[in-house]
Request: fold
Amino acid sequence: MAKIIVTGGTGYIGSHTATELINSGYEVIIVDNLSNSNINVLDGIKKITGIKPVFFKTNLADASETKGFFNHVADADALIHFAAYKAVGESVKHPLKYYRNNLNSLLNVLENMFEKGIKNLIFSSSCTVYGQAENLPVTELSPILKADSPYGNTKQISEEIIRDSIKASTQIKAISLRYFNPIGAHESAEIGELPTGEPNNLVPYITQTAAGIREQLKIFGNDYNTPDGTAIRDYIHVTDLAKAHTAALQRLLNLENKSNYEIFNIGTGEGNSVAEVVRTFEKVTGIKLNTKVVGRRPGDIEKIWADVSLAEKELKWKAEKSLGEALLSAWIREKKYRGI
Ligand code: UD1
Reply:
C-alpha cells in the first residue's frame, strides 16, 4: 500500500482527495496547521471511509517544524501539496502573508522531499495562471499572463520553483494540476467547504443565501461580453477533481509520466455563466434565490473554461458530474452542516 502525504488535507480539496485516496487503497497521512480548516474533518473522512488518517498539526511555512514532521514520514511514496492560502482579495491586502506562507511551505516541502528521497509530487495549481486568455478554451500551452493578485502570483512562482528544482535533479517527478472552479461536496455530505465568515466564492454564497444566512446574492456584473452578460467559469465537482489526483498519482507511481514535470488542466471543459449557475441551483433545489445585479468585482476576468483533452488522454480521467449535481451536493452539505 503506497503511503501518501497530503498537505492541507483537512481543507476543502485536500479532504475530498484524502477520502478518494483512502477509498482507492492508499495509506494517507494528513499534515495541516488548521489555519483554515477544522480537526473534525478527520471524523468526516472516517465516517465515509472507515479509516481515520494519521494527522500531524504542523506549520509547513516553518522550516524546523517541517523538518520534524518529515522525520516521521521519511518512507512516504508521494506528496500532494494543497497547503496554501487561497483568498484572492485577502492576498491583495496582505501580499507578504501570502508570499511567506505559500512559497516558504513549498520550499520547505521540496527541500525535505529531496532530503528524505520522497520521489513524487503533485502540486495544486490554478487556472488563475492564465489570467484573461485571448483564446478559449485554454490549453496547457496558453500563455501565462502577469498575475492579477499575489495569490495568483504564488501559483505561478510555485510552478516555476518546481520546474527549476526538477530541472536541477532527476530525483523528483512532479505533476501540477491547474484547477478551474471547484464546487460541491462529497455525496455523503460528511465533508465540504468550511463556511467561516462571509464567503468570497460564488457557490458558498449561494448556499448560505438559500439557507437564510445571507440576505441576498450579489451578481457581480451583467455587462460582460458573454451571452447573458454575466461572467463565465468552468465549475468542476470537487469529487471529480479529487479523482484527478488519484489518476495523476497512479501515473507517477506506475512510471507512466512522459517527462519529469507535467502540467494538466482539470476542469469540465464547459463554461457556465453566473446567471446559469443561479438558475441551475434554483432548478435542482426548488429554492428561489434573492439576487441583485451589482457592479463588477475588481480583478475578475470575463470568461474562462478549460480544454481538458490532455488530461483525458494522458490521465485517462474525465469529469463526470454535472453542474446540477455539484450544486445540489453543495446544498445538501450546507443543510447537513446547519442542521436544516
Ligand atoms: C478565483 C480564482 C481561482 C481561485 C479562487 C479562490 C481566477 C480565474 N480564479 O476564482 O483560481 O482558486 O478564486 O478563491 O482568478 N460571483 C458573484 N457573486 C458572489 C461571488 C462570486 O457574482 O457573491 C461571481 C464572480 O464575479 C465570478 C464567479 O462568480 O464571476 C465565480 O467567482 P468565485 O467563486 O469567487 O471564483 P473565481 O473568482 O472565478
In short: The chain has a mean pLDDT of 97. Residues 86-88, 126-128, 181, 200-202, 205, 217-220, 231, 233, 274, 297, 300-301, 304 surround uridine-diphosphate-N-acetylglucosamine (CB under 6 Å). The first helix runs from residue 12 to 23.
